[in-house]
């Protein structure tokens, strides 16, 4: 199995960059959606794992990574339409959709707006938004105000230290170095970050959760300072048939903090559907 290969596809007049790993006979498609300030490289360690069974895809949201920059504001619903366009252009639907944080906002909007394109939802450290949203702890709030006077690597590590479980980043220096290198390779500009952050402020699918019929796994760390655990609990209560999987003493990046467990648990869920 080779590593991810990078591509671009036109969606509504813009180029969306994506990575792909695919076996000779895939059992379906998995689309990974990253969070605020991140790019598709956040999933590069996961794609070869999932790509042993599935056509595994991860994209750069509009205005980030190698996707086209935009100047106008947009919403998480617009980003969901981008993901829908990518799945349709690649003939990759219906897909299992795995969304982290803001990527979970996008995944929820994708399921609401384009239900025929979604086979299952895995909602990681995310929220329905709106009045139901439980706001961040102080460390989580601080992480939302990145210091652009720092280098991209320093800025990323400062943020990761705030949002992961205490001591986790220092206990994993090799992984921290890779995360810093990823940030240097694809830094988000201050203006791009501001537009992406504003897109999260209007996210609200609370009123549509009861209408979702897609199989759903809610995966959340109980020590998440940014998107608090109560938000995951609310999703699991509100989406019919949803399952909640809790990772103890885990912060906002369970896909990294609990890498082996995450891959095992999500693959087991996908195998059911």
UniProtKB/TrEMBL annotation:
<dbReference type="InterPro" id="IPR000073">
    <property type="entry name" value="AB_hydrolase_1"/>
</dbReference>
<feature type="domain" description="AB hydrolase-1">
    <location>
        <begin position="29"/>
        <end position="258"/>
    </location>
</feature>
<keyword id="KW-0378">Hydrolase</keyword>
<dbReference type="GO" id="GO:0016787">
    <property type="term" value="F:hydrolase activity"/>
</dbReference>
<dbReference type="Pfam" id="PF00561">
    <property type="entry name" value="Abhydrolase_1"/>
</dbReference>
<dbReference type="InterPro" id="IPR029058">
    <property type="entry name" value="AB_hydrolase_fold"/>
</dbReference>
<protein>
    <submittedName>
        <fullName>Alpha/beta fold hydrolase</fullName>
    </submittedName>
</protein>
<dbReference type="InterPro" id="IPR050471">
    <property type="entry name" value="AB_hydrolase"/>
</dbReference>
